[in-house]
Amino acid sequence: MSVVLDHSRNGVDTQQMYGTLDAIKAEPSLGVFQFRARNHWIDGAHNRSTIQGFYGAGQEDASRAHAFSVDAGEPAVLLGTDTGPNPAEHLLHALAACLTTSLVYVAAARKVRLTEVESTLEGDMDVRGALGLSDEVRNGFTKIRVSFKVRGDAPPEKLREVVERAKARSAVFDMVTNGVPVEVVSD
Amino acid sequence: MSVVLDHSRNGVDTQQMYGTLDAIKAEPSLGVFQFRARNHWIDGAHNRSTIQGFYGAGQEDASRAHAFSVDAGEPAVLLGTDTGPNPAEHLLHALAACLTTSLVYVAAARKVRLTEVESTLEGDMDVRGALGLSDEVRNGFTKIRVSFKVRGDAPPEKLREVVERAKARSAVFDMVTNGVPVEVVSD
After folding, report:
1. Are B146 and B96 in contact (CB under 8 A)?
2. Burial profile A14-47: b = 16 or more Cβ within 10 angstroms, e = fewer
3. Are strands A143-152 and A114-126 parallel, antiparallel or unpaired?
4. What is the ipTM for the molecules in this complex?
5. pTM of the predicted model over 0.90
6. Which residue of chain A comes nearest to B187, CA vs CA?
7. Which of A1, A30, A141, B47 is the most exposed place for a label (fewest CB within 10 A)?
8. Residues on chain A touching B16 (C-beta within 8 angstroms)
């Protein structure tokens, strides 16, 4: 008799997941990561980041054969030529992506098979701040709203618990809600 | 005799820029914007945002004929298949893009012609937070370092002033350093 074990749930290899968690539990220094981006200006509001190397799990990662490239821009009304999402829209993407990935991993750990995860995000901004026209409004969003639709083989209350746990563990949700010290130097 | 006036500086139409600033000064409600993203889960750590419509300058924008699409993923060591930069790397891109665009606009307003703007960003993270292995470390970056190289037709101290002003007005720098209230709902 042969038994086929399927270790994948929601596209996550749960055996690898538990192995990773056990390894970092045993050796906490494996949890130290550094992520990086390089950006160069092209013209006007058009600039491009390249993203490849990072440090993590005790070594400099060499698994990415090519750099990712992500363009930013501004629409015409904000003086650009629409060469990509604008930086604030990229921040919404970063937040959506992190909450979604956290949610998928949490569901995998809790034996929930997901069939659908969608989210819509809105951020409200008075651009008089960023344009230097007012000191009474902040530069960034005053508020971000995230609305998730989550479907899977668990009752609604369990799916809501998974969303709550994802919020509690998402790296970008933490950064966007609590802030991060940023040091800027120039030469 | 004909005179050709070049209104472009750093790829920014300065006449349009001053016109935009004057219009919003005269009618502050034109500064009210809402940016948006939709995200859907594909598999595992792979998800994709589409970004198209926004509200601003007193109306729903219709200038983008197509949606932008941005993918996220995780490298193998973080249980993904490297389908895109990870969410924390996307946050670094959003920050770099916003500081760079702010810098380019500030330089245009201050009559500085830029020849080169590059930045490298690093973010330090102990992933034990996001993986749920420790409550003693935060989920997100503990610190972000941004290093700019800026070249143009102005002395170094003026270029540094432009960087400082960009920091003071960047929407994403504000959000990442000070945080934003985020409301998450799910059904």
Report:
1. yes
2. beebeebbeebeeeeebbbbbbbbbbebbbbbbb
3. antiparallel
4. 0.97
5. yes
6. A149
7. A1
8. 79
